[in-house]
Amino acid sequence: DAGITQSPRHKVTETGTPVTLRCHQTENHRYMYWYRQDPGHGLRLIHYSYGVKDTDKGEVSDGYSVSRSKTEDFLLTLESATSSQTSVYFCAISEFYTDTQYFGPGTRLTVL
Amino acid sequence: EDKVVQSPLSLVVHEGDTVTLNCSYEVTNFRSLLWYKQEKKAPTFLFMLTSSGIEKKSGRLSSILDKKELFSILNITATQTGDSAVYLCVGNYGGSQGNLIFGKGTKLSVKP
């Protein structure tokens, strides 16, 4: 299995609070991605990174920001969580842009 | 608009049956088609298909791509209860917003 961990694995928070999710990889892959998965929508890309300090928006980026200060860590921040951001969040990595992506175990976030 | 459509959305079979899952795609700058298996956790990679007519096999699972007709199938023979999962078909393209387009998945339930 690809060396990808996510923390926390579960989180319950309240509307309006900031939340940061962490993705950590030990594969030294250049590309890292954040997805959310919701019933009826499948997996949707939030943001991705193509190197340290290099990030770009995905399909559903509103309300989210990301940072990547080290190759191995990719952070997803919800500045002010809303109930619509209740979801399962997956991090993924790939060695090359067009390469297969490998997924982390996921974080289940509930915003009350 | 790029899209990946899977059918059926859900399927119930009995152990020992053979199943075929379908995936059609419309993806600009198409590079490959991926299949993932998702149980109650992260998607795990099954196959990457890039060439038409070449079957990929792994145990009881096999898959093939038709780039002319823009579809792929995933076959599972002699199904087991451990095959119960959601199977995701994913289009891989050279787009600017990440590079994967996910289908909504086929939920396979294998009954003993």
Describe the structure.
Chain A is mostly beta strands and 112 residues long. Chain A has one domain: Sandwich (Immunoglobulin-like), CATH 2.60.40.10. Chain A has no helices and eleven strands. Chain A has strands spanning 4-7, 10-13, 19-25, 31-38, 42-51, 54-57, 64-70, 73-78, 87-94, 102-103, 107-111. In chain A, strands 2, 4, 5, 6, 9, 10 and 11 form a seven-stranded mixed β-sheet that branches. Chain A is globular, with a radius of gyration of 13 Å. Chain A starts with a strand and ends with a strand. The model of chain A has no long low-confidence stretch (mean pLDDT 93). In chain B, strands 2, 4, 5, 9, 10 and 11 form a six-stranded mixed β-sheet that branches. Chain B has a five-stranded antiparallel β-sheet with strand order 1-3-8-7-6, with no helix packed on it. Chain B is built from no helices and eleven strands. Chain B is globular. Chain B has 112 residues and is mainly beta. Chain B has one domain (3-111): Sandwich (Immunoglobulin-like). Chain B has strands at residues 3-7, 10-14, 19-26, 30-38, 44-49, 56-58, 61-66, 71-76, 85-93, 100-102, 106-111. At the A-B interface, strand 5 and strand 10 of A face strand 4 and strand 5 of B.
